[in-house]
Q: What sequence folds into this?
């Protein structure tokens, strides 16, 4: 199986982390986002969305990191994607929530406009408005994650056992630290993220983004 990815990609890291922790052999193919390789042939013909990651399993092409995580977990019969109907539905719910709620506001409305020039708004007024709303909404979702999804008792997003929902969400939540948040306002989230960071493969998978974050230190940021 081949995974088209880039280490700076927030959407690539959940797949990379799960594959590394599960010892799934993947042929890793970097798609250079900074030169626009993802929007040109031949990659654009493989994934017409012109986004990463993309999985190629002997000609079976799969996009969207949540779908890739589910596919890989099923392929190796991983307990991280339980077979029980209700347990699996809970995992699916958490992953959908991360994509449609948390990611939309924390990542695309708050973090990316500050760290990637391609996401900055065209005027200072538009940038400020975007960041204000992004911060407001991101705080709403982080509070939900802290108080209702995790709470003081759950070690992971679906209870006491790690699931692919945790691999999925950790990459997005980690971006709060990239813009300078220590997550002190969300102690259960901070505790959970610390548990994810203790995974053996975390340092290698997150090396590039952590290095990039270090280069941003001292730069004024709107944080949560």
A:
């Amino acid at each position: 199986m081949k995974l088209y990815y880039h280490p700076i990609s927030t959407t690539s890291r959940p797949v990379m982390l799960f594959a590394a922790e599960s010892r799934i052999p993947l042929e890793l193919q970097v798609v250079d986002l900074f030169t626009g390789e993802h929007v040109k042939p031949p990659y654009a013909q493989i994934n017409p969305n012109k986004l990463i990651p993309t999985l190629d399993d002997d000609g079976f092409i799969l996009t969207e990191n949540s779908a890739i995580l589910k596919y890989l977990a099923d392929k190796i019969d991983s307990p991280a994607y339980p077979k029980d109907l209700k347990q699996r539905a809970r995992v699916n719910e958490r992953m959908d929530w991360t994509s449609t709620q948390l990611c939309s506001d924390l990542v695309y409305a708050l973090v990316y406009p500050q760290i990637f020039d391609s996401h900055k708004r065209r005027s200072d007024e538009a940038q400020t408005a975007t960041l204000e709303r992004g911060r407001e909404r991101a705080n709403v979702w982080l509070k939900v994650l802290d108080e209702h999804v995790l709470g003081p008792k759950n070690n992971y997003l679906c209870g006491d056992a790690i699931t692919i929902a945790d691999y999925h969400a950790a990459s997005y939540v980690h971006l709060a630290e990239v813009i300078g948040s220590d997550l002190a306002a969300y102690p259960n989230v901070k505790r959970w993220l610390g548990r994810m960071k203790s995974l053996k493969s975390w340092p290698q998978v997150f090396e590039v983004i952590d290095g990039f974050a270090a280069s941003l230190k001292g730069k004024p940021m709107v944080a949560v």
About this structure: The first helix runs from residue 13 to 22. Residues 39 and 45 are 9 Å apart (CA to CA). Strands lie at 2-5, 27-30, 54-57, 60-63. DSSP finds nine helices and four strands in the chain.
